[in-house]
Structures are given as structure tokens and as C-alpha cells.
Recover the amino acids of this structure.
């Protein structure tokens, strides 16, 4: 079992997992409607990443999406940051206490401390509704609310957007969102739009960190990408709970959780579909991630 704060990846936009829905009890797997899965390789920032499904796994591990060297990105784009708003020094919501449990990992750590969002600043998010299945907005609302309760972080819905998902999304988009970090983008997409969704992959999630001077590293924005057609098929088959689990798993990645090594946790890297909510290790990790330092420098 992993230790708290163990680093899983250290990339600027990390997703770590895609969800493969379990085989429906009364029908074939969704994958049968798509071409046979092939090994896929991405060359990003000089790193070759391989996607291969593990036999019987329900989460397909893709490894980090390394879209730019973190150091190079920091230096090249430091001037392209929003004007520091000098945020608050007090939490917006009470800290969450969870029972101790070592069954979680953090996506990124610095000096042994998990990187998370600033609890003294709200996390804004927007939804790209194109390709959304029936009830998709309510599912997102519920997943965000559960994540907020488990972390003690405050989320604010800024409405819908036409911004498409992107592997190299800019953290600062003043023309679209004004002089602030871009809100977390939650989008329903398709395999045609996002080639990462091959085979049975149905969801990705992660966040982008920044660091200035001696201030702590902190996440400032992120993404959740959901395969809308695959989600719609699951819902039509009466498996809405599976879509909700996918969303919740990806929201865990957004706030900084990596994969757990305990099968009783939703963040475990493979599942048979029986775990639909955050488990003990997940809750311990989420409480830890939500109890980070205030970072008014950003």
C-alpha cells in the first residue's frame, strides 16, 4: 500500500487514467462498437507514452500526458500570467477531517508536501455542453459537490463555454475569461475530437501547477474530458452510476489525487464497477489536499 503524498507523475497537465466501463450484464461491452483496440503512442515533449489495456482492467492507465517541459513552460510563459490578485489568507470553507488512511497517492509532491489548490481561493469551473448525454450537467454538479465536501475546497460554476478541450490548453486566456487563470474546463467530447479516447477510454482529468519565487506550488486550473457518446450509451443501458463514477474519479485527479493501491478506493487504477464513491484512502487524501497553504501571491 502506498504512503501518503507519494508522487505519481510530475507533469504540468496530468491525467492519469481513462475509464473503461464494465461489460453490461445484458449486453456486449461498448468496445465492440468500435474498432479493435491498438497500442497507441504519443510523442510529447520528447517522451513516448504507450496506452495498453490491462486484461480485465476497467481503468486504462495511460501514464502522464507530458505536453511541455515544466521548467521550459514556466520560464516561457511566466510573463503570460494573470495580474496577481493577492488572494486571501483565510480559508473560504472549514477544513475537512478524515480518518487516517495510507491508501492514497498525490499526483505531485514538492518537498514531501502534496500539491493542491489554494483553499483560500475559489476554484472556478465551466462546462462545454456539446456532446453531453442526457442528465450530464446534473452528474457534473453532483461530482463537483462531492469533491467539494471531501476537500473543503470551494467551487464556483461560471456557466457554459464553447472552449474545446485541448491537450495543450493555455492556463491563462484573457480574451475568453478575463484577467485571471482560466477556470477548470469540464467537457464532453468524442474520440474524433480527442484521439486520446481510443478503445474503451472514456475519461481523463488533471490540473496544471505553477510556482513563483519562494511561494508554494499550487494548481491554478485543470480539465476533465469525458467521452460523451460512451457516457450516453452507458446511460441508455441503465448504468448512469458508472458515468457518475467516471466523473468522480476524474475530479479526484483534478484536485490532485493519483491512483490508489487499495481496491476499496474509487481512485484504484482498475475496477469492476462495484466502487461508486470515494473510499477511505480517497477521503484521507482529499482532506489532505484540501488543507494546503493559502497562496496569495497568485
Amino acid at each position: 500500500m502506498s504512503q501518503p503524498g507519494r508522487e505519481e507523475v510530475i507533469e504540468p497537465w496530468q491525467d492519469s487514467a481513462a475509464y473503461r466501463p464494465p461489460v453490461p450484464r445484458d449486453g456486449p461491452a461498448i468496445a465492440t462498437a468500435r474498432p479493435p483496440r491498438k497500442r497507441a503512442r504519443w510523442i510529447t515533449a520528447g517522451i513516448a507514452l504507450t496506452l495498453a489495456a490491462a486484461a480485465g482492467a476497467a481503468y486504462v492507465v495511460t501514464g502522464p500526458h507530458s505536453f511541455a517541459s515544466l521548467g521550459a513552460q514556466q520560464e516561457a510563459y511566466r510573463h503570460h500570467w494573470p495580474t496577481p490578485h493577492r488572494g486571501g489568507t483565510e480559508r473560504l470553507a472549514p477544513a475537512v477531517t478524515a480518518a487516517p488512511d495510507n491508501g492514497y497517492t498525490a499526483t505531485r509532491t514538492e518537498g514531501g508536501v502534496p500539491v493542491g489548490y489554494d483553499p483560500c481561493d475559489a476554484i472556478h469551473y465551466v462546462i462545454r455542453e456539446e456532446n453531453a448525454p442526457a442528465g450530464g450537467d446534473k452528474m457534473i454538479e453532483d461530482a463537483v459537490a462531492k469533491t467539494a465536501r471531501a476537500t473543503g475546497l470551494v467551487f464556483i460554476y461560471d456557466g457554459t463555454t464553447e472552449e474545446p478541450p485541448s491537450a495543450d490548453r493555455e492556463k491563462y486566456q484573457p480574451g475568453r475569461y478575463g484577467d485571471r487563470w482560466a477556470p477548470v474546463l469540464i467537457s464532453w467530447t468524442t474520440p474524433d475530437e480527442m484521439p486520446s479516447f481510443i478503445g474503451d477510454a472514456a475519461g481523463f482529468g488533471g490540473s496544471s501547477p505553477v510556482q513563483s519565487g519562494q511561494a508554494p506550488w499550487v494548481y491554478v486550473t485543470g480539465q476533465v474530458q469525458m467521452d460523451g457518446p460512451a457516457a450516453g450509451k452507458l446511460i441508455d443501458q441503465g448504468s448512469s452510476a458508472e458515468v457518475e463514477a467516471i466523473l468522480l474519479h476524474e475530479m479526484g485527479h483534478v484536485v490532485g489525487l493519483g491512483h490508489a493501491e487499495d481496491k476499496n478506493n474509487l481512485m484504484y487504477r482498475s475496477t469492476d464497477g462495484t466502487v461508486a464513491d470515494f473510499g477511505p484512502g480517497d477521503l484521507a487524501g482529499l482532506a489532505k489536499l484540501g488543507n494546503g497553504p493559502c497562496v496569495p501571491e497568485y
Remarks:
- The chain has one domain: 17-289.
- Residues 17-289 form a domain with the Collagenase (Catalytic Domain) fold (CATH 3.40.390.10).
- The chain has a mean pLDDT of 76.
- The chain is about 20% helix and 20% strand.
